[in-house]
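User: I'm new to structure prediction. If I give you an amino acid sequence, what do you actually give back? Let's try with this one:
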Amino acid sequence: MTLRQYLDRAAERINKGSITQAIEDYNRALELDPSSADVYFRRGIAFEISRERERAMADFSAAIARRPQFVEAYFHRANLNSSFKEYPAAMADLNKIIEIDGRNQTAYFERGRLKQVQGNLAEAEKDLEQGIQINPDSDAGRTARELLRALKGEVSVDELLAKYDLALQYHPEAAADLYFARGEFEFVNGRLDGAITDFTRVIEIDGRNSMAYINRGAARQARGLLNEALTDFNRALEINPDGGYAYAGRGLVYLELGNEAAAQAEFDQALKIDIGIKGSLTERIAKLKQRLAANKK
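Assistant: Good question. You get back a string of structure tokens that encode the predicted 3D arrangement of the chain. For your 297 residues, that looks like this:
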């Protein structure tokens, strides 16, 4: 078979849900042309669909190495990093996209969203405003305007949640992503029960989404449901044993339960996996200790 025939058959197999067979076709295609950025990119998407994150990341990186201006590969790698809260790496890819294409509206909006999640609201507003200027009448532009209004306090939490309801109605194919995003928004705004419900919906759609378990665990811990939170962090680590955030979350639960030795072991493991979370983890530990001390008074 020719390279084109392997690619066409792989695409057909993906459409039918035969991901493993599609990956085999991409493997054969790479044997014919190991320099093809496009084949690495396509196989990366197949790995992404099958929730093989590390292999997907490796393929997107291989595609970028062979085609340094490969915007879509940067996007997919950024989305994977973002979904696992690897924000610096995701930001680096979005910065590169904007460097390649300064009018890429989606890159500005996604970078703004990540800045918002990390609490950098002023910089998030700048990215959203710049993205809106590129095409204010696009669907993405209108959505960004609503998010910008929320950041500026011009729209209530309930109004923005209603926007998610509308999006779920018109885009059911994106339900997992929408529930996840809404869950994060609810968590940040103290709507813990809503966040738990939405992360549960993500898990019902994709039972191997470790970040949904981690986020639900964090919401349950904040809600005082410590045993349930511990179950979620344990499940996240079963799915992804290299999840620094899951170890951090489990450590916070142990700390709240009074087991400081076990908590420290979890924190050490979290930082061994991902030193990048040291700042946020240190802050969360300090806040929890303050709350526990206040409760003793």
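You can read the tokens as a compact description of the fold. Here is one thing that stands out. The radius of gyration is 21 Å.
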